[in-house]
Design brief:
The chain is built from 15 helices and 28 strands. The chain is of the alpha+beta class.
Length: 397
């Protein structure tokens, strides 16, 4: 076996190389020399290989194709990473908890769960950051300066990078792909936020109850439960809301606007969620049957929840009245009866309910949905209890 002689040394950092050519190329790190210029946008590079890769952005060339699905990539490394989608390989393992990932970048993000140290503090608001670059970026929030404007819609931004990301909304470009599920995004920050689904990272912790969140916006909204803050007010009736979007939805109560139309029957709704529920009238397909009672469900999660009806297990008890429940969610809803909390509001009529399921059942009044149908005569009902009463009184005689 031959020994590679490394006789060419960089006097800046003492690193050695086998050829003068490799040394010369390395020295550009110190000199800042970038002799290779892109003929399309004048961007410069220290290595010819980097220039060739960059120019593919302009030419659209993607020479590396996946032999499994035909998807093409600009870089050979991207193809290699993509192949793990097909092989299921996850070579990067967390040394703390053993969770595995297909990409090293996802492991790095996940590791923040185990190392929550934050060193850089904003002297304006006290907010802390892991990196100095993040603090520098954040400080522009306080200056309010937005010098970068979109020439298509006039929207202004504090950072040039944010403007470039915004412009992709107009062009439809989505450059950033998640190698776990292949979903694409218009910016690296949105991809990073999405990847927390796969990494399990929840870097934002509530100071009141220690609950953690993957998004800062979700944490801020959650903390309003503890503070009672509802910063968004309706200028028509003075009602307050935690989210800006809730005000916009609420305003339709006053305007009567119903922008969501069913393309089957023409019925209109003020909210997209009500339209989705209504559509079940037209599409009654139910794919997941229970092997105990043959009841069918639209979602696997609904079937899984239903199966506990047959086991009779009720491990969750109310410490105030002793009532037991199969699911912890049901217990939490029940406890709101004692507390008097009614946080689920119908945006059609503003009636409030203690649970999302009670609200959903109520909304069938507005949507006209009747998902429970009698197998004997075909009559439909909005509530399962009404169907049972009908079957007992009409068909059991």
């Amino acid at each position: 076996m031959h020994t590679a002689v490394r006789e060419h040394m960089c006097f800046e950092c003492k690193k050695t190389f086998t050829t003068a050519k490799n040394l010369k190329r390395h020295q550009r790190v110190h000199t800042g020399e970038k002799p290779y210029k892109c003929s399309h946008c004048d961007k410069r590079f220290s290595l010819s290989g980097n220039l060739k890769t960059h120019e593919r952005i302009h030419t659209g060339e993607k020479p590396y194709a996946c032999d499994q699905c035909g998807k093409s990539f600009t870089l050979k490394e991207n193809l290699r990473d993509h192949m793990r989608v097909h092989t299921g390989e996850k070579p990067f393992t967390c040394g703390h908890c053993g969770k595995s990932f297909s990409q090293s970048s996802n492991l790095k993000e996940h590791m923040k769960i185990h190392t929550t140290e934050k060193r850089h503090t904003c002297n304006q608001c006290g907010k802390m950051f892991l990196r100095a670059s993040e603090l520098k970026y954040h400080l522009r929030v306080h200056t309010k300066e937005k010098p970068h404007s979109c020439q298509l819609c006039g929207k202004s931004f504090s950072h040039l990078h944010t403007l470039k990301v915004h412009q992709k909304v107009h062009t439809g470009v989505r450059d950033y792909m998640c190698f776990e599920c292949e979903k694409t995004f218009i910016s690296a920050s949105r991809l990073k936020q999405h990847q927390r689904i796969h990494t399990g990272e929840k870097p934002y912790k509530c100071s009141h109850c220690d609950k953690r969140f993957s998004r800062l916006e979700t944490l801020k909204t959650h903390e309003m439960i503890h503070t009672g803050e509802k910063p968004y007010a309706c200028d028509q009736c003075g009602k307050h809301f935690r989210r800006k979007g809730e005000v916009a939805s609420h305003m339709r109560v006053h305007t009567g606007e119903k922008p969501f139309t069913c393309d089957r029957c023409g019925k209109v709704f003020s909210h997209s969620s009500n339209l989705r529920d209504h559509m079940r009238i037209h599409t009654r397909e139910k794919r997941k049957p229970c092997d105990q009672c043959n009841k069918t469900f639209l979602r696997v999660s609904d079937l899984k929840s239903h199966m506990r009806v047959h086991t009779k297990e009720k491990p969750h008890s109310c410490h105030l009245c002793g009532k037991s429940f199969s699911h912890v969610e049901s217990l939490k809803i029940h406890q709101k009866i004692h507390a008097g909390v009614r946080e689920h509001m119908c945006f059609e009529c503003e009636k409030t309910f203690i649970s999302a399921s009670n609200l959903k059942q109520h909304q069938m009044i507005h949507t006209g949905e009747k998902p429970y149908h009698c197998t004997e005569c075909g009559k439909c009902f909005s509530q399962s209890s009404s169907l049972h009463t009908h079957a007992k009184n009409i068909h059991s005689k």
